[in-house]
């Protein structure tokens, strides 16, 4: 699908700001990508993503130009830092990690970008991004995990996995106390959310 005139203009504006901010390499990399605007009616709650095999970067039209600069560099760094390949290698290294979810991988990847790619100005901008009238969380490592600023993607993925398992055990214990059937040990991170939903309904907080 070709870029619309609006998308072409948006791409040109983004490249201009990247060059003015001193990021000519990112501008040249963006030159190799199409820019598409996310349909927020069909994809509510999505800020941006890169489809590398189609050479397309999708951006939320609600971002201002400074936010777009930070987010474009963020998405390009996912590819530059080879997060997908490194995640696959991490899964294959130890059977314990073979079922790590995409969401958990993305958290660790976002943290590494914060650690290695963000300036203080980028961090301030990342903290200003609103999604559904709420500040978007998870783009700045130290906001959620102080002390992880020097850690690698792999180190944080391991720590997040351990943290998830600890949380899962807490959910299992609480569900058992409530007389509910806990999910099996081998289930992945999605069961944390499923368990939370069940607990919410048990407490009268869930929908339906």
Protein architecture, described:
The protein is 56% helix and 8% strand. It is mainly α and 208 residues long. A 3-stranded mixed β-sheet has the order 1-3-2. Helix 1 (5-20) runs antiparallel to helix 2, helix 5 packs across helix 8 and helix 8 packs parallel to helix 9 (190-202). The radius of gyration is 19 Å and the shape is globular. Mean pLDDT is 84; it is low at 192-208.
Structural descriptors:
mainly alpha, 3-stranded mixed beta sheet, 56% helix, 208 residues, globular, two-stranded antiparallel sheet, single chain
Q: Outline of this structure?
A:
By secondary structure, this protein is mainly alpha-helical.
How is this fold's topology laid out?
Elements: H1 5-20, H2 24-31, E1 34-37, E2 48-51, E3 56-59, H3 65-80, H4 83-93, H5 102-117, H6 120-126, E4 130-131, E5 134-135, H7 141-144, H8 153-177, H9 190-202
Parallel strand pairs: 1-3
Antiparallel strand pairs: 2-3, 4-5
Helix pairs in contact: 1-2, 1-3, 3-5, 5-8, 8-9
Distance between the termini: 41 Å
Give the topology string: H per helix, E per strand: HHEEEHHHHEEHHH
Strand numbers in spatial order across the main sheet: 1-3-2
Report the strand count: 5
Residue windows where pLDDT falls under 50 for at least 5 positions: 192-208
Helix tally equals: 9
| SS class | mainly alpha
Most strands sheet:
3 strands, mixed
The shape is: globular
* DSSP helix fraction: 55-70%
The average pLDDT score comes to 84
Beta-strand share of residues? 5-15%
- What Rg, in angstroms, do the CA atoms define? 19 Å
